[in-house]
Amino acid sequence: MQLILASTSPYRRDLLQRLQIPFEQVAPDFEEIEAGSLPPTELVLHNTLGKAEAVFARYPHSTVIASDQMAVCGDLILGKPGDTESACAQLAMLSGKTVQFLTGLALISPNQKRNVIVPFAVHFRALSKAEIEAYVEKENPIDCAGSFKSEGLGISLLERLEGDDPTALIGLPLIRLSQWLKPLAR
């Protein structure tokens, strides 16, 4: 079985390496739909499947996995901040609030097509401006929705986590993925 990760994300690559199975990483040639054009769950599923299908079309004898993620706080969809000022502003807005991460996972192979949304809630504790600025300076989370990295120092900003798979929070739900891959390895 040739396994392909349809992603350019170093975070997803690093997560998949934890399973210690050989895989290739291929950039999906897929134009994602922007936030706001569909409800968050539909948007994540659309983008996840779109990435997987785009790579599977090029590698039809392989098993392709893809993932997409969106962070939502109330009615607000959180993007990647892109710079330190925006990261600080986003964290200030999230102080004391709950963020719902919706992580889509898709697997397509010659004989199956599966997809799921794995939710994960993050409860931020009250954060001071000094804490936020120090955190952003140390970890530079400008490429992360929600402006924090739970796998690093960002965990110190949180009050609690709620969910079945902590790797979903980083961007690739390994518990569900391992369940899906196990029958294929036989």
TrEMBL record:
GO molecular function: nucleoside triphosphate diphosphatase activity
Cytoplasm listed as a keyword: yes
Localization annotation: Cytoplasm
Record's catalysed reaction(s): N(7)-methyl-GTP + H2O = N(7)-methyl-GMP + diphosphate + H(+)
Catalytic activity, EC: 3.6.1.-
Domain of life: Bacteria
GO cellular component: cytoplasm
Residue numbers annotated as active site: 68
Xref: Gene3D superfamilies: 3.90.950.10
Cofactor(s) named in the record: a divalent metal cation
Signal peptide interval: none
Keyword line: Cytoplasm, Hydrolase, Nucleotide metabolism
Pfam families named among the record's database cross-references: Maf
Marked site positions, Important for substrate specificity: 11, 69, 151
GO annotation, biological process: nucleotide metabolic process
CDD domains recorded: Maf
Function (record text): Nucleoside triphosphate pyrophosphatase that hydrolyzes 7-methyl-GTP (m(7)GTP). May have a dual role in cell division arrest and in preventing the incorporation of modified nucleotides into cellular nucleic acids.
NCBIfam families from the UniProt entry: maf
PANTHER family per the UniProt record, alphabetical: 7-METHYL-GTP PYROPHOSPHATASE, BIFUNCTIONAL DTTP/UTP PYROPHOSPHATASE/METHYLTRANSFERASE PROTEIN-RELATED
Family: Belongs to the Maf family. YceF subfamily.
Stated name of the protein: 7-methyl-GTP pyrophosphatase
